[in-house]
């Protein structure tokens, strides 16, 4: 895995590429990837927008993090004292020779 112009490039012969391929072949994880490429969102919003249960969402976010595609930003809520994690998928290229 290398970076090119702020995009992560996945080659064909890596375990991370295989995990990415699996995620792209599952409708729910594919929808998560598409949504999080557009904007950072917290788990509650992702879950509501895609009608995905939180345990399923956590599973897919964990895999995205393992393969290096997930950026997590912690923001303090403006009116509440708690902090919230926002997730975003980094742009990537899947290279097939």
Report on this model:
The chain has four helices and five strands; from the N terminus they run E-E-H-H-H-H-E-E-E. It is of the alpha+beta class and 97 residues long. A three-stranded mixed sheet has the order 1-2-5, with no helix packed on it. Strands 3-4 form a two-stranded antiparallel sheet. Helix 1 runs antiparallel to helix 4. The radius of gyration is 14 Å and the shape is globular. The mean pLDDT is 86.
Topology (SSEs and partners):
Elements: E1 2-4, E2 7-10, H1 15-24, H2 27-38, H3 43-50, H4 54-66, E3 70-76, E4 83-89, E5 92-94
Parallel strand pairs: 2-5
Antiparallel strand pairs: 1-2, 3-4
Helix pairs in contact: 1-4
Write a short abstract of this structure.
The protein is α+β, with helices and mostly antiparallel strands. The protein has four helices and five strands; from the N terminus they run ββααααβββ.
Instruction: Tell me the distance between the termini.
Output: 15 Å
> Which radius of gyration do the C-alpha atoms yield?
14 Å
Low-confidence stretches: none
Helix content: 40-55%
Report the sheet with the most strands, covering strand number, pairing sense and barrel closure.
Answer: 3 strands, mixed
Overall spatial form: globular
Defining traits:
97 residues; alpha+beta; Arc Repressor Mutant, subunit A; three-stranded mixed β-sheet; two-stranded antiparallel sheet; 4 helices
């Amino acid at each position: 895995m290398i970076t090119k112009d702020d995009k992560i490039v996945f080659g064909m012969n890596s375990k991370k590429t295989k995990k990415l391929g699996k995620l792209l072949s599952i409708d729910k994880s594919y929808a998560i990837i598409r949504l999080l490429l557009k904007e950072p969102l917290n788990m509650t919003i992702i879950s509501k927008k895609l009608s995905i249960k939180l345990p399923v969402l956590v599973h897919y976010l964990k895999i995205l993090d393992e393969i290096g595609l997930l950026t997590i930003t912690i923001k303090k809520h403006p009116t509440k004292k708690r902090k919230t994690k926002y997730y975003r998928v980094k742009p990537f290229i899947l290279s097939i020779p």
